[in-house]
């Protein structure tokens, strides 16, 4: 759940905020004079965000993902067993 709080409240409740972010996966938008200024999220969420940002920044990878999605939409997919036979792989 995303909760918006003023910076004065965040300062007073920082330990509780961090605990809620870790345990309940809450997200906090911290405002200064009513304007959003910062966000507090879990470290796992932050790492996931960074990884997603890196992927989206890689144009070649983004193109490959989009091509793969089109292939799936058009039914151009293979099962693992089909790939093993096609590539003559033994597992």
From TrEMBL:
Antitoxin component of a type II toxin-antitoxin (TA) system. Pfam families: PhdYeFM_antitox. This is Antitoxin. InterPro entries: Antitoxin_Phd/YefM, phD/YefM_antitoxin, YefM-like_sf. PANTHER family: ANTITOXIN YAFN, ANTITOXIN YAFN-RELATED. Gene3D superfamilies: 1.10.1220.170, YefM-like domain. NCBIfam families: phd_fam. It comes from the Bacteria. It comes from Candidatus Roizmanbacteria bacterium CG22_combo_CG10-13_8_21_14_all_38_20. Belongs to the phD/YefM antitoxin family. Coiled coil: none annotated.
